[in-house]
Amino acid sequence: MKHSKPTERTKVKVVLPGDTVSLDVTTPGITLGPGLIQAGDSISCTKAGFLVRSGSIYWVENDQKRYIPETGEHVVGRISGKGGEFYRVDIGSAHQAILPFLAFENATKKNRPNLNIGDLIYARVALANKDMDPELQCLNPMNNKADGFGKLEGGMVLKCSLRYCQRLLTQETDICKLLGQVLQFEVSIGMNGRVWLSSDTIKHISLVYNVLKQAEALNNSECKALVNKLAV
Amino acid sequence: MLQSKSFLKRTKKGNAIKVVQEHYLRDDIWCSVECCKLCVQTGPVLSTSAMLTAQIPRPHYIVPDTNVFMNQIDIIEHPALHDVIIMQTVYEEIRHLSLPIYNRLRALINDQKKRFYVFSNEHHRETYIQRLKDESPNDRNDRAIRSAVKWYSTHLKKITNKENHIEVVLLTDDVGNRTKAQEEGLSAFSVREYVEGMTDTPELVDILGNSSNVEGDKKVPYEEHLTSSQITNGIKNGTLHQGTLNISMHNYLEAYTQIMILGRPCLNRAIQGDVVAVQLLPKSEWLRTPTAVVVEEDLKEDGEPKEQNDELENEVIESSQPTGKIVGIIKRNWRPYCGFISKKSVKSSATSTFSENVLVVPMDRRIPYIYIRTRQAQNLMGQRILVSIDAWPKNSTYPQGHYVRALGAAGDKSTETEVLLLEHDVPFQEFASQVLNGLPVEGEAWRVTEEHLSGRADLRHLNICSIDPPGCTDIDDALHVRPLPNGNYEVGVHIADVTHFVKPFTALDEEAANRGTTVYLVNKRIDMLPELLGSNLCSLRCNVDRLAFSCIWELTSDAEIVNVNFTKSVISSKASLTYEEAQILIDDTRKQDDLTKGIRILNQLAKKLHKKRIDRGAITLASPEVRFQLDFDSQDPVDVEMKELRETNALVEEFMLLANISVAEKIYSKFPASSLLRRHPPPTSTKLEELSNAIKPFNFSIEFETSRALAESLDRAVLPDDPYFNKLLRILTTRCMMQAVYFCSGTLQFQDFRHYGLAAGIYTHFTSPIRRYSDVIVHRLLHAAINPDKNYGQELVDINKMQKLSDVLNHRHRMAQLASRSSVELHTNIFFKGKIEHNEGYVTRVLKNGFIVLVPKYLFL
Amino acid sequence: MCIITVLLILISLMDGRRANELRKIKCKPSVLSQADGSAYIEQGNTKCLAAVYGPRETRQKAQLIHNKANINVEISLAPFSMPQERKKRSKSDRRLLEIASAVKQTFEPIIMTNLFARSQIDIYLQILQFDGGTIQICINAATLALIDAGIPMQEYVCACSAGCHENHTLLDLNNAEEMADTPELTVALLPMSGKLTLLQMDSRLHVDKLEPVMNLAALGCKEIYQTLDETVREYVKDLFQKSSPY
């Protein structure tokens, strides 16, 4: 996964739109992430949140709910329509994403995937451009294998803030690991503020759903306490 | 600066409207005591040399409650009282209860000598209190005042040491409040107790409001007034009628709103000018007394009024005029009244110093007698005194009041002049120092300099002259004319630029707005502007540079306007002429200088203008004025003569009318909603019909559909054998006319703007800013209208304020007229004192027990 | 009915504020869970709730702008918002539409709309209680909600009104003060760069008075800015503290 090996992150400070950040723009390799813009020699913020630094990459982290697609990110989407050669997928962004029939493992003109409106899929953003609708694919471009992408059967979706998804992915919040020690479940984390989860029984599904939802506002020790309580 | 964060909501209910307001409590409100080190303050008001009286020999500040202000404002205004703390609670209550008293209070607060401080106790964190359950608003306010007094007394203890300790004293006439205050350890006194303690100024006791119940005679028991809610309901559902009470000048028991009200019981304690609620009587009781003069009310020997109801009832005859009775008073309109003590009512001996009840006879015949309680009855006999009415309980025939001050001996000219000024509500005090501070610092030495020239046309080279009555020092207007190459004439009217000196929102401006107009009495002039401006800096004297506002026309030789131009200017008048001098110049054919030629051209043009105006239908009305020859030393009138009217009077008048009309058009085009204009409504038919009927025997009639018809019918009514007849008719017609009034253009339709008398579609006053405030406003409007870049304030576009202002000006104007008429009357009386003359006169009105005669020579009724 | 009497000590009789003091401000971001961003703000007795949705797909094709996001502002006045009268106002009330367009104009240059081509940002404003200063509270509430939604802005906006009554300049007029025929000027500022994005007045004001009134309003904006800034920083810090993994 993309963020499997995070470099050390440091929270610099709270910033608000309009704040200027004293960074040297001429530093080689400096990268500005979302929430920062360069205006001449200075860098100013466009969002409220924490300015976070990871190596020479800077960005503003906040509790945004609206997803803005970025190439390479993994998302959980819902099929919302069907065109001649593609599905329309709702991934919570400003525009509906396009999922071509051919963007599946082993798909050919004849061999179309069989998805219906309302089905959930786990996909990768293949193309994101502000002037075009985002495009998804259900295969890993490195090896053209499904690699876990595709239709998600059963289970349910949890909507949460974008930052929580990141935390889950980077295991900054290790609730999934902790919970996994207690019961078995499956989870697909999208970067778009949607987490699909499934387990063997409905009871377990709703349990996992509630734990994950609650953990959003908890730190790791509290998560541990919560899971311990469940385990008993 | 600390901003208090405590935060409360206040809900007011009334008329089913809920108002939710924030109410901030703060801890940065200062006590305003001179020596206070605890409060952060600017400009402390209260002095450490506070009140000292014989009763309270320590310095102290006074805190009066609302009723003290309402009933004893005359005491509060007395110079002996100073260093007073007015609680905001009290201040607001007064504002709701009575506007006149509120205004007097404002004046006191602004008077630095009195040292009155308004303490915002409602917004002070430590003095604010909330209304308790089951507590009436009045009790709550009393408690709020006490709480603030308590705060002050502890605060003063903190900031002063033993030697210079200052106290606070609560003044209240409410016994309950007083005991409660004393229980809380505060010193509280009734006004009487307090004033009696002020041994240095014993006259204050007389000024005390007369609230004690005099044992009234039960012969004229008045009906109870309705409560205000009953009145409001009654007016809403049509059973009651609201109106301002207007008592007949000839009979004080006859009064009108729109409904006639007869007799004392029906008048039910209402006084001239009160806004009253009237209930119609059943039709069978609709009555009318034959018009009779009831001027003097007879008093029986013991000072008690004679029973008059019986006579009255015998004399009434049935009529169709709606008659009603007063059942409630919506708004009292009491003011201080001038009067004298009725001799018959004084019973004490000359040496007595006990206080007794005496009757005061007001000068205004429409006002009932007033009971006052005084110790100085003997001293005050034969003097004119000023009294205020306090109350009119239902078991008392006459209202009860209190003595305010003595004006001087009756019959003395200066006393009588003051009386008539007071009676006509003319502000005649000297100008306050704040007002005089607004004058140019250079004083008499003020000169037109280069900087004044910017934005002004330099017209100093023109042959400008002014024409005024002899002895005139406030010259507002000057004229010039010069022939143009195309055969037309350039005619300029130059008006003193008062607005250069009188800027809006200054004390000077406010004072002038309040005075409204200069009042001319026979022997005195009450100026609207301080003398320095009126008679010097603004006055367009000859051979000095003066600032002016000029109105310049191009006129054809037939006096048709080709164009008109307005500009601020600098002029230098070449001659200040009297009407007579100007007339001589016109007539003296030997004189051929430019100035004289100019005056002749003006005279020709004026005649053409006059003719045009008459053709349009303007009426020549007669309101001849008398002029007294005053004895130089005593200022007593020695002879009476008519004011002479010369051609030159008409000359000036014509151009002034022209300027006024041109200006009115200009300002109306720029400010259609907020121009200050003057209109003259057409006369009401009833009065003129009466007059028309009266002259029927002479085969004349009066038509008044249009002013033109009226003018023509007046022209026809000439009796060859009686040359005065036509004049008399014109005088009487003038009396039937409506008053011309100022108004704000946004309040009426354009067709109602007409000036009936001048037959002008639109008219205003522009030409006498030195003596009329309306002209000052018009100057400002015109300046804003001709100068698109000119900044002007909200006050010029606010319709409501403009209309309010015009109401004030109308009132002042009317009062000034009445005052000068009274002054003439006064001098006429002095003139006829001990004189017997035989003269011819005309009977103009016949009453039941008298008739009114007009004597042409003296215009005396 | 009500006249503002400014006494010598310059404390308004209406509510005990000085002429250059703001009413009390309370604000709270992120009050609604459904919206992408939301905020609640009180300025004195005027209370406003703002919700921001977006960027999302345009509802009507006609509103689609091919190179930037369309900002859509809707204002509604709760029927119970006025204590004097209970009246339902339609959304197409002319006055409300006017305020909405003023709010829209204020934010158009501030929000980086070019990042979200062909999409729409909805700002819904609900006045819960009305006591004057509608435009300013709408702008302030919208600012907070936009920040909460994480919509990129060059800088955020603060607005404040000021007026002039009988030659006294007054800050932050409440309803009664507005009713007393006071010309009211609303100024919206970018507090950090000091740029002006809105200047609105419906009545006439003397030119000489414009500058002092504007300066007063600008001072008010700065003060409001401080309150908002504090609130947001506190909120962000709080949020990250609460959900910090450590």
UniProtKB/TrEMBL annotation, chain A:
Flavoprotein as UniProt keyword: no
Subcellular location field:
Cytoplasm; Nucleus, Nucleolus
Q: Name its GO BP terms in alphabetical order.
A: CUT catabolic process; exonucleolytic trimming to generate mature 3'-end of 5.8S rRNA from tricistronic rRNA transcript (SSU-rRNA, 5.8S rRNA, LSU-rRNA); nuclear polyadenylation-dependent rRNA catabolic process; poly(A)-dependent snoRNA 3'-end processing; TRAMP-dependent tRNA surveillance pathway; U4 snRNA 3'-end processing
Specify the taxonomic lineage.
Eukaryota, Fungi, Fungi incertae sedis, Mucoromycota, Glomeromycotina
Please list the GO terms describing molecular function: RNA binding
InterPro entries from the entry? Exosome_RNA_bind1/RRP40/RRP4, KH_dom_type_1, KH_dom_type_1_sf, NA-bd_OB-fold, RRP40_KH-I, Rrp40_N_euk, Rrp40_S1
Choose one Gene Ontology CC annotation of this protein and give it: nucleolus
What SUPFAM superfamilies does the database record attribute to this sequence?
Answer: Eukaryotic type KH-domain (KH-domain type I), Nucleic acid-binding proteins, Ribosomal L27 protein-like
The segment(s) forming the Exosome complex exonuclease Rrp40 N-terminal domain are 30-66
PANTHER family in UniProt: EXOSOME COMPLEX COMPONENT RRP40, PNAS-3 RELATED
Residue intervals of the K Homology domain: 155-202
Q: Does the keyword Methyltransferase apply?
A: no
Which keywords fit this entry according to its UniProt record? Cytoplasm, Exosome, Nucleus, RNA-binding, rRNA processing
Report the protein name in the record.
Answer: Ribosomal RNA-processing protein 40
Q: Which family does it belong to?
A: Belongs to the RRP40 family.
From TrEMBL, chain B:
GO molecular function per UniProt: 3'-5'-RNA exonuclease activity; endonuclease activity; RNA binding
- Which cellular compartments is it found in? Cytoplasm; Nucleus, Nucleolus
Q: Which Gene3D superfamilies match?
A: 2.40.50.690, 2.40.50.700, 5'-nuclease
Q: Which cofactor does it need?
A: Mg(2+)
Any single GO CC term annotated in Swiss-Prot or TrEMBL for this entry: nuclear exosome (RNase complex)
- Residue stretches making up the PIN domain: 60-179
Identify the residues that the record assigns to the RNB domain, covering every copy. 456-788
Chief location bin: cytoplasm
Q: Which GO terms describe its biological process?
A: CUT catabolic process; nuclear mRNA surveillance of mRNA 3'-end processing; rRNA catabolic process; rRNA processing
Pfam family for this entry, one: RNB
Q: Which UniProt keywords apply?
A: Cytoplasm, Endonuclease, Exonuclease, Exosome, Hydrolase, Nuclease, Nucleus, RNA-binding, rRNA processing
Family classification = Belongs to the RNR ribonuclease family.
Q: What is this protein called?
A: Ribosomal RNA-processing protein 44
UniProtKB/TrEMBL annotation, chain C:
The UniProt entry, under Pfam families, shows: RNase_PH, RNase_PH_C
Keyword Ribosomal protein annotated: yes
SUPFAM superfamilies found in the cross-reference section: Ribonuclease PH domain 2-like, Ribosomal protein S5 domain 2-like
Return one GO MF term: RNA binding
Biological process terms from the Gene Ontology for this record are:
nuclear mRNA surveillance; poly(A)-dependent snoRNA 3'-end processing; rRNA catabolic process; U4 snRNA 3'-end processing
CDD domains, alphabetized: RNase_PH_RRP41 (cd11370)
Q: Which compartments is it annotated to reside in? A: Cytoplasm; Nucleus, Nucleolus
Its signal peptide is 1-19
Q: Which residues form the Exoribonuclease phosphorolytic domain?
A: 21-152, 156-217
Q: Which UniProt keywords apply?
A: Cytoplasm, Exosome, Ribonucleoprotein, Ribosomal protein, Signal
Origin: domain of life: Eukaryota
List GO terms (cellular component aspect).
cytoplasmic exosome (RNase complex); nuclear exosome (RNase complex); nucleolus; ribosome
Family statement drawn from the similarity comment of this UniProt entry:
Belongs to the RNase PH family.
Q: How does it assemble?
A: Component of the RNA exosome complex. Specifically part of the catalytically inactive RNA exosome core complex (Exo-9) which may associate with the catalytic subunits RRP6 and DIS3 in cytoplasmic- and nuclear-specific RNA exosome complex forms. Exo-9 is formed by a hexameric base ring of RNase PH domain-containing subunits and a cap ring consisting of CSL4, RRP4 and RRP40.
Entry protein name: Ribosomal RNA-processing protein 41
- Organism field: Gigaspora rosea
